[in-house]
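hey so i finally got around to running the thing on that chain from the lab meeting. sorry it took forever, my laptop kept dying and i had to restart like 3 times. anyway pasting the input first so we r on the same page abt which one it is
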Amino acid sequence: MRLQIATSDDGAVWDFLGPDGTDDTYYTATNQEINSGHDGDRYLRYKIFLQTADLSKTPTISDIFFTFTSDCVPPGQVFFSDLSAGNYSLTATKTGYQH
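ok and heres what got predicted. didnt touch it at all, straight out
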């Protein structure tokens, strides 16, 4: 599996690029950062290239995730707005998580 990403500020112009910012490369690993040339664009598209050496098998994609982060809200954190001064208690749970 290989993947290229295109972003656009206006939804009209799309250039599919790989991790080095050219159309000659592809994202091939999980958790790769998207090239900074896409920063600030509003729209995102992706193109997937599937290939197999065994013609009796069909490659499949089951999940694709894109995660937005910024300096204000890094991954794994949340921002609560409009809270009044005081103390708050927050409980986070997840099925299967043991603390």
